[in-house]
Specification:
Number of helices: 14
Radius of gyration: 47 Å
Structural class: alpha+beta
Largest sheet: 6 strands, antiparallel
Helix content: 25-40%
Shape: elongated
Distance between the termini: 73 Å
């Protein structure tokens, strides 16, 4: 089997070769075009010697300069030191600049040279005097250099910020400037948005870039300017097909297009390049590629991070859904669906379960109500530690274990102790709270133990009370400590009595007092009964349980919640079995 890395390397070499061939072919076409259209020298003919016109004046030449310009005359002393700088004249562009930036009256008109410092004293504190001195004494061009100073105008002080160049001119110096703030704003804008532009000549592979070209590409200040082929070599292999297609569209199809380059060795930068063709003449071949390059590394990293997060969230959701499907199937398989099978024993049962949606939609709550030998009923409700599939698995183990233990006909105290020993032997993660009870229909007696679980609540004639705790108080949750002992409490049920068994997910709120949570449950059970006392029949009991859960449920809940409602409905003939 071929190594994938060697396959990618071979593909990369082919892509680079295709880009080189495209550029070389266009270079040959450009050179051939230039050779065919090279202008021929004109035919020389004898002609009379021309009469040259009078040369223009210095002021006319100065006015022809497009940038603002001043002619200054240094005043030197006997030792050659510059004592003053005279403002001799200016061109039309300088007068327009002064009118716009300073005021119509500055500088004033004059008939003779005036002192530069007299009208613009702040210039003395800038690099201009030193530049004038070096240009005058050394005969070398100075600048361009950024000059900043404050000029007083009738409307207030204004900041002057220009790029100044000073050139020696005999006994004078010529000062030429352009608005530096525009240049710096353009440079700053390029740096802020990390954008640059360049023009690649296809005839000689030359490059004419903007100032931030190297910076955007992550190159050193003195690094050679990269041509299009150099960009291809710097790009990652996955970027090469897109670069080739973009160059093909620009050079041969003469279209504006764009592509994305991931550059190696430059901090893994991502550059978006939009390129357009530059033609020698309308309809002719393309002789240059002009491109705007934008550093979109940060944007791409954010997008890649968002895509990774989205993929991870999707995987987590799929895992959660798979866990929920398995857990729900297991829950459906093990939890009872009450019909009227308990009615023969004088009881009705209804259960409401609300999963914790933040987990897998399932948890460790469980309940059981079934007939045992001797016409007794096993009633139990518990809350296994944890969430999701692990909790459901533990719930199923404890529930089936309890069902098996109950057939021994041992008292509920012994059943709870055995269940505790089984959970302890299963490991430190196998802990749970539970209410385990037996109902003796012949005497309408409910005996129950508490393993770290909320007390059952009795609803009798609309009044709600907690059932008294077993002697010695509630026992430890099962699975915490081997050898723990449990005691039982008993309550006789009257016809119409409702016993509510519930898990703490229904009432517990973070930061609240457990006693307040219990009082809230008692009040809700009482109010729901007062709003509409449940009629006869299991469906009415289920409706009451659902209304109670709905009243207590809300965004504060951080666990799954279960309510099991039991109601005594008819007397039963005693079977002479003793309570156990």
């Amino acid at each position: 089997m071929m190594d994938p890395s060697s396959t990618r390397a071979a593909r990369s070499r082919l892509d680079l070769q295709a880009i080189h061939e495209l550029l070389d072919a266009q270079r040959r076409r450009v050179r051939k075009y230039a050779e065919a259209h090279r202008p021929r020298p004109p035919v020389t003919r004898s002609a009379p010697t021309p009469q040259y016109p009078v040369p223009p004046s210095a002021q006319q030449i100065l006015d022809a300069v497009p940038n603002p310009a001043l002619l200054l005359a240094p005043v030197v002393d006997g030792a050659g030191r510059i004592q003053d700088i005279l403002y001799v004249t200016q061109n039309a562009a300088a007068r327009a600049y002064a009118t716009e930036r300073l005021a119509p009256s500055i500088p004033p008109t004059w008939t003779a040279p005036v002192s530069l410092y007299e009208h613009f004293p702040a210039v003395g504190g800038t690099p201009v005097p030193g530049m004038v001195a070096r240009a005058f004494h050394e005969g070398t061009v100075q600048g361009p250099e950024t000059i900043e100073w404050i000029a007083d105008t009738p409307s207030g002080p204004t900041r002057i910020n220009d790029q100044v160049q000073i050139t020696p001119c005999g006994e004078h110096v010529l000062v030429v400037w352009e608005r530096g703030h525009r240049l710096r704003m353009a440079a700053a804008a390029q740096q802020l948005v990390r954008v640059c532009w360049a023009e690649w000549n296809l005839g000689d592979h030359g490059v004419e870039p903007s100032g931030s070209f190297r910076q955007v590409l992550g190159l050193d200040t003195n690094a050679p300017l990269p041509g299009l082929a150099d960009l291809a070599h710097a790009a990652s292999p996955e970027s090469l097909p897109g670069l080739y297609q973009a160059l093909y569209d620009v050079i041969l199809r003469k279209r504006t297009t764009d592509c994305e380059l991931r550059l190696r060795g430059a901090g893994d930068r991502v550059i978006r390049m939009t390129a357009e063709p530059i033609r020698i003449a309308p309809g002719s071949l393309v002789w240059a590629v002009r491109g705007v390059l934008v550093d979109v590394t940060a944007e791409r990293r954010r997008r890649d991070a968002a895509e990774r997060a989205e993929r991870e969230a999707r995987l987590q959701q799929e895992r959660a859904e798979a866990v929920a499907d398995v857990a729900n199937a297991l829950r459906e398989a093990v939890l009872p669906h009450f019909q009227d099978e308990l009615a023969a024993y004088g009881l009705e049962a209804a259960a409401v379960y609300r999963p914790d949606a933040r987990e897998a939609g399932v948890g460790g709550d469980w309940y059981k109500a079934r007939r045992l030998p001797g016409d007794r009923l096993l009633i139990a409700l518990g809350d296994a530690r944890g969430h999701g599939l692990d909790a459901v698995t533990l719930m199923a183990k404890l529930r089936y274990a309890l069902a098996g233990l109950a057939y021994t006909e041992q008292r509920v105290e012994q059943l709870t102790q055995w269940l505790n020993e089984l959970a302890c032997a299963d490991g430190i993660e196998s802990t749970a709270t539970a209410i385990i009870a037996r109902y003796h229909p012949e005497i309408a007696l409910l005996r129950w133990t508490c393993a770290g679980h909320p007390n059952p609540v009795l609803v009798r004639s609309g009044r709600t009370t907690q059932l008294p705790l077993p002697p010695g108080g509630p026992g430890l949750p099962v699975g915490v400590l081997p050898g723990a002992a449990y005691t039982a409490a008993a309550v006789s049920l009257e016809i119409g009595d409702i016993v509510l068994l519930y898990t703490d997910g229904l009432t517990e709120r973070r930061g609240h007092d457990p006693d307040e949570d219990t009082e809230r449950f008692l009040a809700a059970a009482r109010d729901c009964f007062a709003d509409a006392a449940p009629g006869t029949g299991r469906e009415d009991l289920l409706d009451y349980a659902r209304r109670l859960v709905a009243r207590l449920d809300g965004p504060h809940r951080h666990d799954d919640a279960t309510l099991l409602a039991l109601r005594r409905i008819t007397p039963r003939t005693p079977s002479a079995r003793a309570a156990g």
